[in-house]
Design a protein that fits this description.
The complex is a heterodimer of chains A (265) and B (290). With 265 residues, chain A is an all-alpha fold. Chain A starts with a helix and ends in a 6-residue tail after the last helix. Helices cover 71% and strands 0% of the residues of chain B. The longest helix of chain B has 31 residues. Chain B has 13 helices and no strands. Classes of the chains: A mainly alpha (265), B mainly alpha (290). The interface between A and B is large, with 35 and 39 residues.
Chain lengths: 265, 290
C-alpha cells in the first residue's frame, strides 16, 4: 500500500543518519540528568508533590527525554519541510500527486516517529533506569498501553504541527506561529514541568488540552499514575484530540487547496 | 582592500606577527560588515523581526516560568532562595545568549560541509571563522538576552549581598567571562563538526544543556557531575564558582576561595584551546569536490 511505503521510506530515511541519532541520544541523556537532578531537589523539599513519589518523578523526567524526538516537541520532524514546500510553491507538485496530502505527511511522520522512538527513546530511558530508581511497570500490558499512548501522542502532535504548516498558505512567514505553537507545546505538555505541579486550576485545565496528550498522558500511563479506567480515559482523550485535529486539518486543507494560487514558474 | 591583507588572508599561516595581526583585524572588520548586512536585512521585515524577537524572549522565559512554578511550591531549592537561583539563571542566560548572538550560527557548519557551500566560503579572501560566525546573524536573540537581563536585574536587586566595589565589578566580569567560555564551546563544537557533520546536536548538550544546568544551584547535582563541570568542561566558571563567592557561600568542592577569580584566565585558556582546535580542524578539511 502506498502510505505504508511512504512510512517505511521515511523510517529508513531517518535511520540513515546514525551519527545524528547518536548525537541526539547524547543530548537527550545529558538533559535527562539535568532534569532528573532538579526534580530530585524539588521532590526532596516536597515529597509527593503533584501526587508523584520520587521514582515516579524520575520516570517522568526520563520519559520526557525519551519522547522528545518522537513527538517533535521542539519542532522539526519533517513538517518543517511541508512548511517550506508551501512557502516556495513546491506544494503545487505535491497536489498533483495521486495521493492525499494529509495522509502522505501523516504516514511520513509516523515512520519518522517510530524510528526516533526506538533510536532516541530506548537509550535515554535505559541510562535513566541505571542511574536513578524509576517507577517502570512490570506488566507487559502497561508497556503496551504506554506504546499505544506514545503512538497517539505522535498523531496528536502531527495534527497540531500540520495545522501550523497549513497556516503558511495564508502567512508569508510562518516562523512566528511555529514558534508560538512550539512554546505552547513545551509548556502545556508537561515538558517544562509536570502538569500536576502547576497551580491547581491551571493543572486541571491543562490536563484537558490537546498538548497533555503529547507527554503528560503517556508518562502517567508508564509511571502508574493512570491505571485501569484512568489509563483508558487518557487514551480516549488522546484519540479524541487526534481525530478532532485531523478533521480540522482536513477542513483547512480543502479550503487552502481550493484558493491556492502558486506564484512563479 | 590592501594587497598585503589579501595575501595574509589567503595564506593559511602568515609568517610574522604583523601578518597575523592583519588577519585578525581584517577578520573583525569583515565580521562587522557581515553582521551589519544581516541586521539591515532583518530590519527590512520589522514585523517579522518583532515577532521572532518576542518569541525568543518567551522561549527564554519558559525556563524561568518553570522555576517560578517550582518556587510557588517550595521556599528553597538545594538550599538556595528564589533571588539566588534567579541570579544564577540570569548570569547563565546572559552569557549563553550573548555567545549565541555573536556566533550561534556556527552550528550550521555541518550542513554547509554536507552541501558543499563551505567551499564557497573558503574561496573568499576572508577568514572562514568570521564568515561563519556572522552567517545569518540572528538579531532576534536580543529577545533572550533582554529576558535574561531583566531576571538578572531583578535578582541583583533582591539578593542578600554586602555590595563592595569588588563585588559590583564581579557582575560584568562574570557576564564577559561566561560569554567567552560559551563562545569557546561554540567554536569547539563547530570544529567537531568537521569530523562528524551530523553531530551538531552534541554541542547543544554543552550550550543549552550547560545553561539549563547552571541555572540550578550546584548543590542540586551529584558531586561527580559538579566536578566534571569544574574540571573537564569548565562551565562552572560562567556563574557557579564566582557567584557563590558573590553570595558568600562555600564552594561545593571545597576549593580555595581564590578560585572564584580564575574565571577570566579559564576563559582565555579555553578560547585559545578552541582556537587551536578550530585551526587543526580547518586545516584537515577535505572537500568532497562535488
Amino acid at each position: 500500500m502506498l502510505y505504508a511505503a511512504v512510512a517505511t521510506g521515511s523510517f529508513r530515511r531517518y535511520a540513515t543518519y546514525r551519527v545524528a541519532t547518536a548525537a541526539g541520544v547524547f543530548t537527550n541523556t545529558v538533559f535527562g540528568f539535568i532534569v532528573a537532578y532538579s526534580y530530585t531537589a524539588l521532590w526532596d523539599q516536597r515529597p509527593h508533590l503533584g501526587g508523584y513519589d520520587l521514582p515516579q518523578a524520575m520516570t517522568f523526567a526520563w520519559t520526557g527525554q525519551a519522547l522528545l524526538a518522537a513527538t517533535s516537541l521542539l519542532g522539526g520532524g519533517g513538517i518543517d519541510e511541508l512548511q517550506d514546500r508551501i512557502r516556495t510553491g513546491d506544494i503545487a507538485i505535491d497536489l498533483h500527486r495521486p495521493a492525499d496530502l494529509q495522509l502522505w505527511w501523516l504516514a511520513a511522520d509516523l515512520g519518522r516517529a517510530v524510528l526516533q522512538l526506538i533510536g532516541r527513546g530506548v537509550v535515554p530511558l535505559t541510562v535513566g533506569a541505571c542511574f536513578f530508581e524509576l517507577a517502570l511497570p512490570r506488566e507487559p500490558l502497561t508497556w503496551l498501553l504506554f506504546l499505544t499512548s506514545a503512538l497517539l501522542a505522535v498523531v496528536v502532535s502531527f495534527g497540531l504541527r500540520y495545522l501550523v504548516a497549513l497556516a503558511s498558505f495564508w502567512l508569508l512567514d510562518g516562523a512566528g506561529l511555529a514558534m508560538i505553537a512550539g512554546l505552547a507545546a513545551m509548556f502545556f505538555s508537561g515538558m517544562v514541568l509536570p502538569l500536576p505541579v502547576f497551580p491547581d486550576a491551571l493543572a486541571h485545565a491543562a490536563q484537558l488540552l490537546p498538548w497533555a496528550g503529547l507527554l503528560q498522558v503517556p508518562a502517567d500511563v508508564l509511571l502508574g499514575a493512570r491505571t485501569g479506567a484512568g489509563a483508558l480515559q487518557g487514551l480516549l482523550l488522546q484519540a479524541g484530540w487526534a481525530v478532532a485535529l485531523l478533521a480540522l486539518g482536513r477542513l483547512v486543507q480543502s479550503y487552502a487547496t481550493r484558493k491556492v494560487v502558486v506564484n512563479g514558474g | 582592500m590592501a594587497d598585503g591583507v589579501w595575501e595574509a588572508a589567503v595564506a593559511d599561516r602568515p609568517a610574522d606577527a604583523a601578518g597575523r595581526w592583519a588577519v585578525v583585524t581584517h577578520g573583525l572588520h569583515v565580521y562587522r560588515l557581515l553582521v551589519w548586512m544581516w541586521i539591515r536585512s532583518t530590519l527590512a521585515y520589522r514585523v517579522s523581526f518583532a515577532m521572532t524577537a518576542l518569541g525568543n524572549f518567551a522561549a527564554s522565559a519558559l525556563d524561568f516560568v518553570a522555576l517560578l512554578l517550582m518556587f510557588s511550591r517550595i521556599d528553597v531549592l538545594g538550599g538556595f532562595s528564589l533571588p539566588e537561583v534567579a541570579l544564577l539563571y540570569g548570569l547563565a542566560g546572559m552569557a549563553m545568549h550573548l555567545a549565541d548572538l555573536l556566533m550561534g550560527s556556527m552550528d550550521r557548519l555541518g550542513s554547509r560541509i554536507r552541501d558543499g557551500s563551505l567551499d564557497t566560503l573558503l574561496l573568499r579572501p576572508v577568514p572562514v571563522f568570521a564568515q561563519l560566525a556572522a552567517d545569518r546573524f540572528a538579531l532576534r536573540r536580543l529577545g533572550g538576552i533582554s529576558q535574561s537581563a531583566v531576571v538578572l536585574g531583578w535578582a541583583l536587586a533582591h539578593v542578600d549581598v554586602a555590595w563592595s566595589a569588588g563585588r559590583v565589578l564581579m557582575v560584568p566580569v562574570m557576564v564577559l567571562t561566561g560569554t567567552a567560555i560559551f563562545g569557546a564551546v561554540f567554536t569547539a563544537g563547530a570544529a567537531f563538526q568537521f569530523w562528524a557533520q551530523d553531530a551538531a546536536q552534541v554541542q547543544n548538550s554543552f550550550t543549552y544543556g550547560g545553561r539549563a544546568m547552571l541555572q540550578y544551584p550546584p548543590t542540586v547535582f551529584a558531586r561527580d557531575l559538579v566536578r566534571g563541570v569544574v574540571f573537564v568542561v569548565p562551565l562552572a566558571f560562567v556563574n557557579w564558582v564566582p557567584a557563590l563567592w558573590l553570595l558568600g557561600r562555600p564552594e561545593p568542592l571545597g576549593l580555595p576561595p581564590w578560585v572564584a577569580f580564575l574565571g577570566p584566565a579559564v576563559a582565555a585558556l579555553l578560547c585559545a584551546a578552541a582556537g587551536l582546535l578550530w585551526r587543526r580542524a580547518l586545516a584537515a578539511y577535505r572537500s568532497t569536490g562535488s
